[in-house]
Design goal:
By secondary structure, the chain is an alpha/beta fold. It is built from 13 helices and 20 strands. The protein binds adenosine-5'-diphosphate, aspartic acid and magnesium ion. It is an enzyme of class 2 (transferase).
Length: 406
């Protein structure tokens, strides 16, 4: 007998028929003698619908009330799953984020999990009751409902698994594992039997949305055994593991893309100490997460251009901040472009091999794809390109690094 956490995403919970399928899978684990906590997402499309209502009600809405609205999607599916399990003869009870509670920071709409009470829910599980927990929700000081940021149910599941000391955390989704790239845009993508925490973290942070970045961070820290697998078939999934558990190391493990960034070029920034600080300081204060940064060499005039990317949703706020700081920074004008995409290749094999970036530049160049910015880390190279080339670039790189399935 083991204690396990099963997490089901939006597609898996989309409608009563699919919830029945989820309930059968849960029942199977219960009948195998396991104590089960299930973490569920809202039905596919529901969170978008709720976000839309908030925007329609007021473009500049109170984030505390936004959280009250968008957390509702998961409340519905957790109740429905508990009803369905009960109808199948499986004792089950829902435990909403505020009822457990799952304590979070008060960063509404992207709150961080701080801890979770496990007493009563643990006792219920020991009595043989399935605990159904809505993902994405938490509770901040002052008893306000919070949400964890889009895709946050993965993080809820890992946090629940860590708190309940579960043997494993199974993330059921609409693909049967983690692939070398998004299988929806590259049919020749290969499923990985194992992926290291570190690579999964990089892949998630550069756009592979199969797991939310924070969930991988948490799994790595708390040593939670995570598996990604399909809700719709029984094929083996992908295990997220420590590096020493990967036998045959590839040079590149995966390719990811992100269409959620926008590019800003600040023209003619004075090339003197402190000017870059004057530029990025106000953006940091406004909570804008700057990603790629390129500073050009100075012109004869003593000025330089600085190009960087920000989340696309933060573009209006960033322009507003830069406009207000214009006199302090001393630039002449701003150029923006939100038709960009960031393409990244990730692999721990990069640490010991030269020429990885060059393969990327050559492959993209040979297809006429221009590179607008570059960033690297120890196990990742990212480039910014025109958005229209996203799929082509991902496919070309997947082939260039020998990742295509036979
Ligand atoms: P859920 O609703 O179950 O949380 P998500 O839509 O958040 O599911 O994540 C699953 C999706 O992630 C897949 O449908 C797939 O299109 C996408 N994806 C992106 N990159 C990858 C990858 N490397 N491997 C598998 N899926 C990926
Ligand atoms: N329902 C939330 C979202 O769509 C959380 C999740 O599904 O992980 O972002
Ligand atoms: Mg998801």
């Amino acid at each position: 007998m083991a204690r396990i956490v099963m997490k089901f995403g939006g597609t898996s919970m989309a409608g009563i028929e699919r919830i029945r399928n989820v309930a059968s899978r849960v029942k199977r684990e219960v009948e195998a003698g396991n104590e089960v906590a299930v973490v569920v997402s809202a039905m596919a499309g529901e969170t978008d619908r709720l976000v839309g209502f908030c925007r329609e009600a007021s473009p500049l809405h109170d984030p505390r009330e936004y959280d009250v609205v968008v957390a509702a999607g998961e409340q519905v599916t957790s109740g429905l799953l508990a009803i369905t399990l009960q109808a199948m003869g499986v004792p089950a009870r829902s435990w909403l984020g505020w009822q457990l509670p799952i304590h979070t920071s008060d960063a509404h709409s992207s709150a961080r999990i701080l801890g979770m009470e496990t007493g009563p829910v643990g006792e219920a599980m020991t009595r043989g009751e399935v605990a159904v927990i809505p993902g994405f929700q938490g509770l901040a000081d002052g008893n306000r409902v919070t949400t964890l940021g889009r895709g946050g149910s993965d993080t809820s599941a890992v946090a629940v698994a860590a708190a309940l000391k579960a043997e494993r955390c199974d993330i059921y989704t609409d693909v049967d594992g983690v692939y070398t790239t998004d299988p929806r845009i590259v049919p020749r993508a290969r499923k990985l039997e194992r992926v290291t925490y570190e690579e999964m973290l990089e892949l998630a942070s550069v756009g592979a949305k199969v797991l939310q970045t924070r969930s991988v961070e948490l799994a790595m820290k708390e040593k939670v055994r995570v598996q990604v697998l399909s809700s719709f078939n029984d094929t083996p999934g992908t295990f997220v593991v420590d590096e020493d558990e990967v036998v045959e190391q590839q040079l590149i493990t995966g390719v990811a893309y992100n269409r959620n960034e926008a590019k800003i070029t600040v023209v003619e920034v004075p090339d003197r100490p402190g000017s870059v600080g004057a530029l990025f300081g106000p953006l940091a204060e406004a909570n804008v997460n700057v990603d790629m940064i390129v500073q050009n060499i100075a012109h004869d005039t003593g000025n330089t251009d600085v190009t960087f990317t920000v989340p696309r949703t933060d573009l209006p706020k960033s322009l507003d901040v830069l406009d207000k700081a214009k006199a302090d920074i001393g630039y002449s004008r701003l150029i923006t472009d939100d038709n960009v995409a960031k393409i990244s290749v990730v692999g721990v094999g990069m640490r010991s091999h030269a020429g990885v970036a060059q393969t990327m530049f050559q492959a993209l160049g040979s297809r006429g794809i221009n590179i607008q910015a570059i960033t690297t880390s120890e196990i990742k190279v990212s480039v910014l390109i025109a958005e229209e080339y996203t799929e082509l670039a991902v496919r070309v790189l997947h082939t260039a690094y020998g990742l295509d399935a036979a």
